Amino acid sequence: MTVKEYVAFRKETLRQEASAFAVPPTLVIIQANDNPASDAYIRGKLKDSEELGFKAELWKFPPTISQEDLLKEIDKANADPLVDGLIVQLPLPPHINEDVIKKAVDPKKDVDGFHPETSFEPCTPKGICDYLGHEGFVFRGANAVVLGRSNIVGKPMAHMLLKRDCTVTVLHSKTSLEDQKFYIGHADLIIAAIGRNAYLDGRFEYKKSAFIVDVGINRGEDGKLHGDAIPDLPVALQTPVPGGVGLLTRIALMENLMVAAKNR
Ligand code: NAP
After folding, report:
1. Helix axis angle, 245-262 relative to 3-19, nearest 10°?
2. Is residue 144 part of a domain?
3. By residue range, what is the domain housing residue 96?
4. Which of 21, 36, 145, 202 ranks highest by number of CB atoms within 10 Å?
5. Ligand 1, residues at Cβ distance < 6 Å
């Protein structure tokens, strides 16, 4: 199944599950920035929620809000039994400590998976792993290569693949091209998250049975969005950009919200 088909299938399942609830799964999004990219992400989350018969509310505050007042709003959502999931949209203004805010969200409502004691997995790696599992990828013992070691993508991705019993190699900008060619050539799964247009191309050899997940989002000279890999590499599965990991991240949030609602 393509990512689009998979997401449509999961949405249908979630919609059916949501219709059985007297009070629909309910999400609160707290925003304390004027960031246009955040506005776009939030619009996506509100649209997905509505489409699935979930309820979602945006609590928007000016970026001048104090940390104390923001914590009070988080407490309000934490204490409300009708709120299943709570997310605080990043980035936060510089006078607010992101770590304090992440830890203030009730771990039972932390559908972004940011709290240290959360039972939820972070949405991008979870969305990727759910899709791979659905497509029949066998994690246990597979050679997985993660390109990129950032705190927001590479590291959580590598951690989740380890949890699923892959043998994980993390490549980064100080890994020689020769070593990259070696590890990529032996990989059953390649997660590309470096932010370089067309980095994975014909210079590398790939296993024919390999799965490639392209997390990169790069604006090309043509003005369009491209991934870290050129399209149509000779492998078993490759996710497109756009229409790939972005959609998987969005559906994973809705899956987490459904679990939170079931745990009510
Ligand atoms: P980042 O913080 O810039 O990290 C990039 C990573 O790639 C770093 O670890 C860097 O290594 C490594 N790298 C750079 N050049 C490399 C090379 N030639 N060979 C091997 N490794 C190399 O970026 P990020 O925030 O992780 O994001 C990565 C990409 O994913 C971006 O295109 C971003 O837009 C996209 N993204 C997509 C989603 C989604 O939902 N689809 C979500 C978040 C991010 P060093 O550590 O050595 O510098």
Report:
1. 20
2. yes
3. 22-114
4. 145
5. 124, 147-150, 152-154, 171-175, 193-196, 215-218, 245-246, 249
